[in-house]
Amino acid sequence: MNALTPGFRGRRRTVDDRVPPGQYLTEDFPVLSAGPTPSVAAATWTFSVTAETGERREWDRAQFAALPHETPTVDIHCVTRWSKLDTRWRGVSVDTLLSGLGTDAVFAVAHSFDGYTTNMPLQDLRGGKAWVVTEYEGKPLPAEHGGPARLLVPHLYFWKSAKWVSGLTLHTEDRPGFWERAGYHDYGDPWTEQRYQEGF
């Protein structure tokens, strides 16, 4: 199943319709990180989902590779003001990873191997809106862009798409992550320019 950016459903949207306010288009893929690129071996990478009840699921690389995969083509928008259109990825929908999990959680926190975290409402990871991806443009995801795997949540600013992702924890209350505690907006909608908290 392919997931396509809204620009490919119905009437084809113009470039201007696809670039949020305050953004500029780039053909490059800038590398931005809060710290050095961690060394995460693809062969030993694992991913887990832990509910607020304590129920936990974990997949090793082989188990993750056996899950149904999708190939979303999406536009991405960085809080540093660049946007890149029609990026192609391959990964597993978060819907698949959460399927059948008993939870009353309304928030999620993504965790990375370098200790980075970022938060979002759980509904923003469901309904075909988010993936854990291991390939970019038909090749294994490079380490500088989050390989062996990163979260992909393209409708939010790109800091929410955590690099080197190791798991999700589900919560009944909001738990701000690394950049959110540093003054970035708790939600991060590029279309309303939710870059920073008020007063930051």
UniProtKB/TrEMBL annotation:
It comes from Glycomyces mayteni. This is Sulfite oxidase-like oxidoreductase. PANTHER family: OXIDOREDUCTASE MOLYBDOPTERIN-BINDING DOMAIN-CONTAINING PROTEIN, PROTEIN-METHIONINE-SULFOXIDE REDUCTASE. Gene3D superfamilies: Oxidoreductase, molybdopterin-binding domain (3.90.420.10). Pfam families: Oxidored_molyb. It comes from the Bacteria. Residues 1-20 are annotated as: Disordered. SUPFAM superfamilies: Oxidoreductase molybdopterin-binding domain. Residues 35-179 form the Oxidoreductase molybdopterin-binding domain.
